[in-house]
Amino acid sequence: MESTNLLEKTTERNSGAITARRLVVDGTSALVAGMTVAPAVSIIDRAVTESVSGRATLLGSVQSSLYTMVLRPHRFFIARPFAIMLFLYSSTYLSANTVDTASSIMNNKPADTVTSGLPKFLAVSAVNLNLSLFKDVQYAKMFGTTAPTALPRASYGIFIVRDCMTLFASFNVPQMIAPRLPPSVDGYISRLSAAQVATPVMMQIFGTPLHLLGLDL
């Protein structure tokens, strides 16, 4: 009996240690993913906001941001716009990674299992929507030409629709369409990776007009 209890306690400790390590990996991966995505998205969002407000042309804003990022990286990467975007995307990826880890543990599946169900969509949406709305308001205040004012409720509604579309395309659609891609794709990149890259980009065709409409209200 004592040996059985000892074995159970050892197993629980090992399981807890493994879970902790996986969560650390989830957090590190989320931060790296955020660092990868945040610079480009920060530049684009600033350019769109300044272009709509008439503060700068789209190309001029992009060139100015790229100049700062390349020649004065310390100013770009410690600035508030980048910090907001990094926090947004790192938190979003962390929530997605955590759901995948929890699902794999509860269902006794491999650590690299990727889920695509409603729980993941709801968890990621809860994190991303709130942070995205905060980001949109801050960018409008920082890069608009008018005095800082509250955004209309209609703008919030449009931003929520845009973000839900983007999240669904980023975290749910890839797992659905990857098996439908031609097997030949695996010769260059995994079908899941190809879908994860392609679907968010394609969704921007619909998301960008909504973003512009929300800023224009």
From TrEMBL:
<dbReference type="GO" id="GO:0005739">
    <property type="term" value="C:mitochondrion"/>
</dbReference>
<dbReference type="InterPro" id="IPR038781">
    <property type="entry name" value="C365.16-ike"/>
</dbReference>
<protein>
    <recommendedName>
        <fullName>Sequence orphan</fullName>
    </recommendedName>
</protein>
